[in-house]
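I had to read the description of the data format several times before I understood it. In essence, backbone conformation is discretised, so a fold becomes a row of integers matching the chain in length. I therefore recommend that a typical entry be quoted early in the introduction. For illustration, here is how one protein appears when written out as sequence plus structure tokens.

***
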Amino acid sequence: MEETIVSAQLAVDETLEIRKNRVTSGSGTNPKEKRLCIVTGTHGDELEGQYVCWQLNRILHQYPERLHGTVDIYPALNPLGINTMTRGIPMFDLDMNRIFPGSESGAAAEYIAAGIIRDIKGADVCIDIHASNIYLRELPQVRVSEDTADTLLPLAKLLNVDFVWVHAAATVLESTLAHSLNTLGTPTLVVEMGVGMRITEAYGQQLIVGILNLMHSLGMWDGPVEAVRQPVISRDGKVSFINAGASGVFLPTARHHNRVVPGQQLGVIADPLSGEIREVLHSPAKGTLFTLREYPIVYEGSLIARILGEAES
């Protein structure tokens, strides 16, 4: 059942609406029924979650007899951003994931944020799907803060991601959707995968397998589930950052998701004007190249790659 959860009047006879699709085996209002929320589209340039919402909707409608509980799917928390290929909310020029929990009496963007929180609060689990920006490609991962790790790690391990990063990332900090919901007692997992303005179907399929596995664990899905990956659990100290030391055009020589060793060349920063190589970038550690620069133009200090080093299972 499609419904509008919150709306705000725009300037010229139009209305901003945040919509969800509720797929349920019961009334959807029984407090004893488990409820899972799938949200995405907070940043308008992150589209990986659109594929997940579409395919999950199809599966749940194809096999309604296998669902036991309620799944609420929110494909576009920032529809203006998606429609204009803009990361933030265009008319307010702000990052939507920095205004939660919002305010019922605040300006339009804050009012919308408060309505989203009001609708999701109380769910058994919420999965907040993000892509990377247009500059970097990321392996499927769950990011959780240190404060929520004890509660969220058991759930994150069910999601068929490659690793879980316990990290003070911007996506889990105060004023984000995830932080606000976790503070209110709704366990919320932040998934990061792929690259901005693109859809990586393989990553979407990987996450769908994980979502069904999580639902099975919660008693919400009795259909067949595939074996899931055992993610590496990483702390900040096990992640190496590689930044550009010069401006130019980055040309990778290592491949995303591959294993690298100390001293291995990751790529070069080229100077198209002179034909020279301004910098050769090497791996400082042994591990998995889980982040790699996607957009070639770089400046001194630009993030080029991240390597997941020694890890605990």
User: Anything to note?
Assistant: The first helix runs from residue 48 to 62. The chain has a mean pLDDT of 93. The helical segments are 48-62, 79-83, 108-120, 149-156, 177-183, 201-217.
